[in-house]
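Researcher: Go.
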Amino acid sequence: MADFWDGEFDTKPWNELRKYWLDTFNTLTTYVKTNAEFYRKHLAKVDGINSFDALLDVPYMTKNEIRDAQAQGDKRLPLGTIQSARTEDIIQVISSSGTTGKPVYYGITLEDLEGWKDALANFTYTAGIRREDVVAHVVGTPIFAGGEPYFEGMRNIGAAVVWTGGQPTQRMLETIRNMYCTAVLGTTSFDLYLGENCKKLIGSEARDLNVRKVLGGGEAGLGEEQIRQKIREAWGATTIREIMGLADIMPGMWAECEEESGMHFTASRHIMVELLDPDTGKHLPWEPGVRGEPVYTTLLREATPVIRYSSHDYIEVEGVECKCGRTSPRIRCVGRVDDMLTYKAMNVFPTSIRDVIMTHFGSVATGYVQVVKDRPGQVKFENPIPVDIEVTPEGQDPQKLKYEIEAKIRDLLTVRIDANLVPPETIERTMYKTALTRVRNQK
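Model: Structure:
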């Protein structure tokens, strides 16, 4: 029997969702133009949208526009000119992580909070969390979107949440052991780090703890089978689920079901999503193999609504049907549009380089890879792209392995790299995302 948190929207046909989204979108635009100075200007030419394609006439929003609107705030409007609710009605503020620039802050009202708790419960429920679980939430910063909001969502299911984040790593693992946690939720790279370093830190293998469910997100990676397998082996887990959200819109919107073959859109009651070609700005079909950029609208948020937000994520549709009964397409995140690199005339994502390495050299590669740039904004490379690659040293001929990795990347991605093989734990781990790029001499 199918098992859903929000069966009504999880199984609603995609065409019916579009009608619901358009109706709610028009209500939203009336609300924001009445209540927010930014939107009165931004949507001045928008007056009723009667088809999905007509959404293309509504201007995008970017993070820089939101930052600029926020910079115009004052004591009356601390969240800037996109603030659409009275400050006295805002009960909480969350922040983006600031990994792509100055953090942006968002507010929620009591009504927003109830919606978030429902949406994030559906998100984590889809990813396998149940009332009987004891979940180690290892994100350390409450104000981040992946912090307190995830806590509220899992608590709404009824799961016992042990917020271990922010503690020293050894204490974190001791708490997971002492509380007999059944699930771990963190970034993909930190989930892997905890699993691989558990014995060194507390004298027990991670697989000997009680954890059988591992949820990972915050960065692309868990869609790569070799990384998934490393996490599975380290923890002895039977459930490995990739999850994804966006602080600016909803901290959790995509999650894998029990099929573990791509993430479903879990926020359709609260969020509208469009799939666009980032080059042309036109809609793309949700069909297997199609790649594009999701654009989001917060349909029901009162405090700081965001309309047609350009996410800069780059996703691929894995499928449009699923044995679980959900009607949402299943997707993987390929990378971020603004992370794309260019070698001569060829484009490549750092995640694609890592994917090739893990697929073909996973027996010796740890899964940690970093592109090395000469300056922060560098995206073009005329010489082979420098890449640090962690590998285990035992029984390897470094020069032979370097040549084989470079040749495989050249054959499959049509770009050249300069592979710098480094020992395990050379690339810095963090409790949040492990960067796929770094600037030379700025580790």
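Model: The CA atoms of residues 65 and 344 lie 32 Å apart.
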